[in-house]
Structure formats: C-alpha cells, structure tokens
Amino acid sequence: DTAVSQTPKYLVTQMGNDKSIKCEQNLGHDTMYWYKQDSKKFLKIMFSYNNKELIINETVPNRFSPKSPDKAHLNLHINSLELGDSAVYFCASSQDSTFSTTEAFFGQGTRLTVV
Amino acid sequence: DAKTTQPNSMESNEEEPVHLPCNHSTISGTDYIHWYRQLPSQGPEYVIHGLTSNVNNRMASLAIAEDRKSSTLILHRATLRDAAVYYCILRDVRSGAGSYQLTFGKGTKLSVIP
Predict the structure, then answer these.
(1) Beta bridge partners of residue A28, listed in sequence order
(2) In this predicted model, what pLDDT tens digit does every residue of B56-98 receive, in sequence order?
(3) Model pLDDT, residue B43
(4) Which pLDDT tens digit goes with each residue over A20-44?
(5) pLDDT tens digit string along B31-47?
(6) Nearest CB to A104: which of B38, B51, B102?
(7) Chain B residues contacting A, CB < 8 Å?
(8) Are strands A110-114 and A10-13 parallel, antiparallel or unpaired?
(9) Can you point out the beta strands (E) in chain A?
(10) Whether the bond into A61 is cis, omega within 30 of 0
C-alpha cells in the first residue's frame, strides 16, 4: 500500500492556468507538508499543516494555496501558473512535527511543467 | 537554512562500506540529526536519525561524534541501489509555531561503481 500518494504524477499546462495537485496519506499522521524541488535539485519546504491547521507558511506567492479538508489530505492549488513554477512538488507526512521520534514519509512527487 | 556541511559527491565500490560525513558545528543540545536519501526520480526516503548515541537500523548506522559537531552515516555494504543523494539534516525549530521542520541542504551524491 502506498503510504503517501500524489496525483497526478506529471502535469503539463500552459501559463496562466489554474491547477491542483492532490495528496493523501494512509498512515494516520497528524502533520503534512508540501515541498518544492527546483531544477537545481534544491528541496524547499512550502507549507505544513498539523491537524488541518496551517503551521508553516514559507515565503511562497499567494498564487499557491494549500487546502486540508481532513488530516489525511493536503491539496495544493496553484493559480495563474508561471514558467518559474515548473518543478517537482513533493507531499510528505509525519506523525507529529517534533522530529524527535518521528520521521517524514514522502510521496513520489508531481512533476509540473508550465509551457 | 541548512546548518550542515557535506561533501558534494562521493564514490564507492559495490559491496564495500561507505562512510558519509556531515559537519554540524553549530548543533544545539536538542537538535536531532536526521539522514534522508533521494534515489533518482523518487521522493526523499528516511534513513536514520539520532541525538547522542550511535544508532543502527536495517538500512544503515549513524555514528555521532562525542561533541556532536559531526556525524557519519555508514552503509555497511554499498549496492547499486544505494546510489542516491544523501541529506544530513538538523531539525529546524519554527519560532512561534511550536514545531519543527526538516530543511534540506545540497546533500552528498553517492555513486556506486559495479
């Protein structure tokens, strides 16, 4: 069984479009995250939710809006897509956000290409 | 920002042990040392983590220096499947949020030679 699953795996879209990436975890974790990995392979955190509440919101354009309908889901909606949004987006989850006895589980990523 | 320093790349022969170093000279007493790896075209994968004592699991061993300013991830027998980018991470406290995050640095790209 897939622990953290993202859909779609690939997404090609035109500039200016609005798109969503879905993420689901079946681990019963309380905390979920979105990371962005750019073409230089740097992996940067974007958002973190704990029990459906936003706890981390890095400097990300307002065009990016995370939504957590329940603890098991954290979706990422992107408005007015730009060329610079092209990247691989990873969803992750962890039991809690202490990272003392917990580890993070990552999805397989969504490769977004904006043309 | 990442508070660890790792070599950009390393090579190992297949079936030989690999020692991946990490320096974290500004580590605080409550910082856990985490290691993740990212295989090509996959998401990061947890490897191991520890606080003060050396740790072993089915994937690897983590040796932590007595002063905790450095650590070494040990893969006992490298296989081709171990070729990946290995990240050494200190959990980052989020002030005012009462939580932590994992901030990834550049990592070490490990190549395994058959």
Answers:
(1) none
(2) 999 999 999 999 999 999 999 999 999 999 999 998 776 555 6
(3) 96
(4) 999 999 999 999 999 999 988 889 9
(5) 899 999 999 999 999 99
(6) B102
(7) 32, 34, 36, 38, 41-46, 49, 51, 85, 87, 91, 94, 97-104, 106
(8) parallel
(9) 4-7, 10-13, 19-25, 31-37, 43-50, 53-57, 64-70, 73-78, 87-94, 105-106, 110-114
(10) no
Inter-CA distances, A67 with A5, A41, A50, A53, A104, Å: 16, 25, 12, 10, 20
Helix residue spans in chain B (DSSP H) = none
- Burial call A35-68: b when 16+ CB within 10 Å, e when fewer: bbbeeeeebebbbbbbeeeebbeeebeeebebeb
- The pLDDT of residue B95 is 57
Could you give the C-alpha distances from A110 to A76, A87, B61, in angstroms and in order? 11, 8, 31
Residue A62 in tokens: 């307002």
CA-based nearest distance B99→chain A, Å: 5
Structure tokens that stand for B2 in this block: 């990442």
**Residue A49 in tokens:** 């939710």
